[in-house]
Amino acid sequence: MANALTICRIVLSVALLLPDAFSLPFFLIYALASLTDMLDGLVARTTGTESGLGARLDSIADFVLTITCMVKILPAIDVPAWLWVWVALIVLVKVVNVISGLVIERRLVLPHTIANKAAGLVVFLVPFAIPMLGVAVPAVVACAVATFAAMQEGHLIRTRTIGPTA
């Protein structure tokens, strides 16, 4: 059941390519896709069906949803250069974290920390906030939380104090 929800997220993510960004159909599909993200892990834990495959599938589904949202939203907004730089730095830290995890643990390490979950929630809310607040305010909040989460993740990996991982 959990993996079915994750696969639904992938299908819904692809469906996001159909409506206009920031339209009601876009927000409904986006909300449903995000709901599957919240539920799949809960269902897996509740039913005792957690698995390495499910965790990897979840990461793939998150990636597909993220890329699809970028494809739809970025052409519809004006992103300032400073924001591109900040996002690039967060991505760089995340890449270093993945490489560090591979070197230190000899496996893919994707910590599911409270900070990473908070970053996910804030990033999820950004598209809903953009029509009301513009790009800058939601982006600063999301980038600040994501920066903290990425730095904490790196610290946990490099000090080998990793909590639950994929």
Q: How would you describe this protein?
A:
This protein is mainly alpha-helical and 166 residues long. It folds into two domains: 1-76; 78-166. It is built from six helices and no strands. The protein has helices spanning 2-15, 24-47, 52-73, 81-105, 114-133, 136-158. The chain is globular, with a radius of gyration of 16 Å. The model has no long low-confidence stretch (mean pLDDT 93).
Q: How many discrete domains?
A: 2
- Overall shape: it is globular
Q: Characterize the main sheet.
A: none
- Count of separate DSSP helical elements: 6
Query: Mean pLDDT, rounded to whole units?
Result: 93
- The span between the termini is 18 Å
The gyration radius over C-alpha positions equals 16 Å
Kindly name the structural category.
Answer: mainly alpha
What level of helicity do the residues show?
over 70%
